[in-house]
Each structure stands twice: as structure tokens, then as C-alpha cells.
Specification:
Layout: E1 6-11, H1 16-27, E2 31-35, H2 42-45, E3 49-55, H3 64-78, E4 84-88, H4 93-99, E5 107-110, H5 115-127, E6 133-137, H6 141-151, E7 156-160, H7 163-172, E8 177-181, H8 189-198, E9 207-211, H9 216-223, E10 229-232, H10 237-247
Parallel strand pairs: 1-2, 1-3, 3-4, 4-5, 6-7, 6-8, 8-9, 9-10
Helix pairs in contact: 7-8
């Protein structure tokens, strides 16, 4: 799937407040997708989600079915590494943490929602604590999916399918490292690398080139650009993770 910078707003029931949250997020410049049922599709949406916001019902601690729904929603999202944010009653948070320790690692915003606090909470959820963030830039979705699967337990992984989408993404969302395909159509890896180094917001982000050419000449051509390293596309999972640990 292609990255679309969407925030997924997950609600138990679409309401006036949910609509106000959706409107505020849109005003902040985010694409917003609302999911009010069919939570099973959340797992597939994780590849294109910047953040999942779960708007909890006010009586969740008193309703076992609603708690089970929250557990199911979290299970669909958790292994993807995508950040989650919860909006709920302040009194319910300690109980929910006791029920599910994962809740303690998520940004929490109290109900009733104050719209002037929503934007800051969203930014904290996107850019705050948690796993190191890696952006994969590769026009081959199958290869991107494979290495995302390799890395997801240790890092929070985003992916885009073109150089220009990478630039757009990085101007809005900082990451800790970029895995950049050397050979891409239209705007190739070296061109993207040059643009990243010219932009103040991205010039200091480590970049590791992904290349399918393992000849001496090919490697020398890649390293002449002075990236922070290179990884052959024929590499193994263990070697890739070792390279990332060295840089991060």
C-alpha cells in the first residue's frame, strides 16, 4: 500500500464529538479515515496509517463487551508498530492499564475533548516515546513488506513507494533513519539523497542505501555519494538488523 499520511479515527459509534475531532484533525492538515465498525480491517490499514486514535465510550470500564472490543482493536494494530492514542474518561485509565498494560505506553487524552489540546496530543503520539522510527523508500512493495516484517519487532516502520513521497513524508514526520532504494523510476535514490541533504529538516537523518548491485564497481558508485552505509537487497534478516543497530 502507498503511504497517504492518514490518521485513522476508531470510534465505537460515530457522534457529534467524533465529527468535531475529525474536523479538527483535517484543519491541522491530516487526512482522516473514520472506522466505526468492521475493526478487522484495521490490520490492513496499518501500512498506510500515521496514527490510530481510539475514541473510547464513557462507560467502557463497566461494559465487558466494550473492553473486549478495545482488546480486539489493539490486537489488529499492535504488531504493526504504528502508534496508538486513546481518548477516554480520566477515571477509566488506571483500570484499563491494570487490564491491559499496553495502555500505559499510549498517549492519553481525557474526555471531554478540548480541541486546543488535541493537536498537541496527536503530535506527542506521532513523535513521542517508543521505538526508533525508520522510513523505507522502495518502489517494490513486496520487498518493502518483507523487510518491514523483519524489522517490526524492534522498530516503528513507515514506507513510501517513491522519492517524492519520501520528501513529503519527511517534512511532516521526523524519523531516526532512512532505508533508501538506490534505483527507482522518475526520481532515483541519489537524487532523493541529494534533496535530503539540502533540506535543513532532513540533512542530519542517517541514510542507508538499498542496492541490488553487489559488484565492486556498483558498491563504489553507491558509497561515492557518502551515505551512512549500504545494504544489499540479497542480505539476510540478521545482517540487516545488525546494520541498523550499528547506526541507531
Amino acid at each position: 500500500m502507498e503511504w497517504d499520511l492518514s490518521i485513522v479515527l476508531v470510534v465505537y459509534k460515530y457522534s457529534v464529538v467524533a465529527k468535531a475531532i475529525e474536523r479538527k484533525l483535517a484543519e491541522c492538515g491530516y487526512n482522516v479515515v473514520v472506522v466505526a465498525e468492521d475493526y478487522g480491517r484495521l490490520k490492513d490499514m496499518a501500512d498506510t496509517a500515521l496514527l490510530f486514535i481510539i475514541y473510547l465510550p464513557g462507560d467502557i470500564a463497566d461494559d465487558q463487551k466494550e473492553v473486549e472490543t478495545l482488546d480486539f482493536i489493539q490486537e489488529q494494530i499492535w504488531n504493526s508498530g504504528t502508534n496508538m492514542m486513546l481518548i477516554g474518561e480520566k477515571k477509566d485509565r488506571p483500570w484499563l492499564i491494570q487490564h491491559n498494560v499496553r495502555v500505559d505506553s499510549m498517549v492519553w487524552l481525557d474526555r471531554p475533548v478540548k480541541m486546543n489540546e488535541l493537536e498537541q496530543s496527536v503530535l506527542s503520539a506521532i513523535h513521542g516515546k517508543g521505538k526508533k522510527k525508520i522510513l523505507v523508500v522502495d518502489d517494490d512493495p513486496s520487498f518493502a513488506r518483507m523487510i518491514k516484517e523483519w524489522m517490526k519487532d524492534d522498530y516503528q516502520i513507515y514506507s513510501v513507494t517513491s522519492g517524492m513521497k519520501a520528501i513529503t513524508f519527511l517534512l511532516q514526520t521526523p524519523v531516526d533513519l532512512i532505508l533508501l532504494d538506490y534505483e527507482m523510476p522518475v526520481v532515483d535514490g541519489p537524487q532523493v539523497f541529494q534533496m535530503l541533504r539540502q533540506e535543513p529538516a532532513t540533512r542530519n537523518i542517517p541514510v542507508i542505501f538499498l542496492t541490488g548491485v553487489g559488484t565492486r564497481e556498483g558498491v563504489e558508485r553507491v558509497m561515492a555519494l557518502k551515505p551512512d552505509g549500504y545494504v544489499l537487497k540479497s542480505t539476510t534478516k540478521s545482517k540487516l538488523l545488525e546494520s541498523l543497530r550499528e547506526k541507531l
